[in-house]
Amino acid sequence: MISIDLIQQTAETLMDKAAIEIPDDYLDGLKKTASQEDGDLSSFVLQAMLENYQAAKEDRRAMCGDTGCPRWYVKMGNEAQIEGGAIALEAALRRATANATNGVPLRPNRVHPLWRTDHDNNVGIGAPEIEYGFEPGGDWVDLITVHKGGLFGTDYRMLFPSDGIEGIKRFYLDCLVAFGKRGLACQPAIIGIGLGGSKDTCMVLGKRAACLRVVGDKNPDPKIAALEDEFKELGNSIGMGAMGFVGKSMVIDCNIEVGYCHTGGMQMSVHAFCLSSRRAVARVFGDGRVEYRTDPDWFTDYQRRDTVEWNIPENQTKSA
Amino acid sequence: MEHSGKPNKIRLSTNPTNEALSKLKIGDIVYLDGVVYTGREGVYMRAIEDGEPIPMDLPAESAANFHCSPAAVQNEDGSFNMGAVTATASFRFSKWIGAWFKMSGAKLILGKGGMSPEDYKKHFVPNGAIYLTTVGYGTGALLGRGVKQVRALHWRKELGLAQAIWVIEVENFGPFIVESDLEGNSLFERENAKIAENLSKAYEGTRPAVLKRFGETDDRKDELI
Ligand code: SF4
After folding, report:
1. What is the model's pTM?
2. Which of A103, A107, B21, B169 is most buried, by the most CB atoms less than 10 A from its CB?
3. What CATH number was assigned to the domain covering residues B9-185?
4. What angle do CA A101, A103, A106 make, to 5 degrees?
């Protein structure tokens, strides 16, 4: 049984970590990009960002004044039992979100879309979002918080099989150029691309590709992995860098996720996870252990399975 | 021009002389000393449209208007806890900026992403003002470090925390980049033009989508296929 107090306490720590500590994979990616940037202004911006991450950690203050929209991804091992069940879990995550908003402090960004009512705690109708996934075996729950920022940098388009890779590239470039001018997307970013599914699942896939995969990992389909590399390169060859200045740093990494779609269509979504790529993860075990990490490790073989049945690998049958 | 080396770094007063401003070139890096105040649509509407007197002595107290809502809380004892500070996109305030210059005597507009070349020509140049953009734009923690203290909070009741006037004492507050100079030249415009020259190369080997969207045709009566 996983203790509900431990879940709330862990969730509060995660809120703090996400807002303040830039994940190492993104930081390393940005350092690498910065070392290759030769645009003077773009270079200056990247150096300032590196200093900013340092300042945030030293002072324990949020890295960006816009602290985004906190949301939760919860993944449960099949053996996990949560004290009080799923309802208690959701209450604990809402409490943690509200407490951390006043504690860190975060900007109370969430308002009613029409009446602009602000509860000053980032909690309201449908906020924070809580999404679920499951994994065979394992008496644990993964709590993942993402504070995605950026009103700019996300788009969807219905393409068709005849659009082909050339059409996918065109829409990808359209998005980067449109959002990159004046740096509205706060690039360089992790770009997530969703392909297929239906309109809603395509958006979900792309967003998860941006927020739940780390810099450097590859899609297990070698042809998709090759596309990821090609798209990263393509984005960095537009001639645009940080803040829309001349340069070559647009994309820290490009992650593509796919889902089976209607035979006539080829849905595509593009998402930019900005300079403040805020995510934090912890695995809470039934025996009271908590392990913090920054890799959500969301897209396992199980999440990407394409068969009717799923044969649980030997090593996953009991607690991981 | 193409390769001008490392950008210049300059310390600037929040009540700068015309001479100091005339030395600034687009692309220079600026750090501010003095006092800045936040003011965005709420303040503009109240001061300009409703004619409420501004509760500050402007520009004597400060000539630096910051388009910003800080991540800050007011404690129960009335003191403030200011965490990170990040600007908000300025292009939305075009409508009020001319009247605001007349009223406030502002010389520095601080914000995110700049304003339009028309705004610079029509409003900034005649008033001897320039635009400084924040950097990143995620440098909220660095900017937060430059805040010495909150001197006053005006119109909090009337406008709420996000829209109120925060009067902030700052030291080595930055970095900012000079986006427009006294002649109304714009850094973003210059960079956009340079990038546009090479865009067709990046698009080589791509193809327009089979199904168009509105906006890709100007005529709403057009079919999209
Ligand atoms: S897009 Fe990201 S880095 Fe930019 S202002 Fe928003 S939260 Fe900050």
Report:
1. 0.92
2. A107
3. 3.20.130.10
4. 35
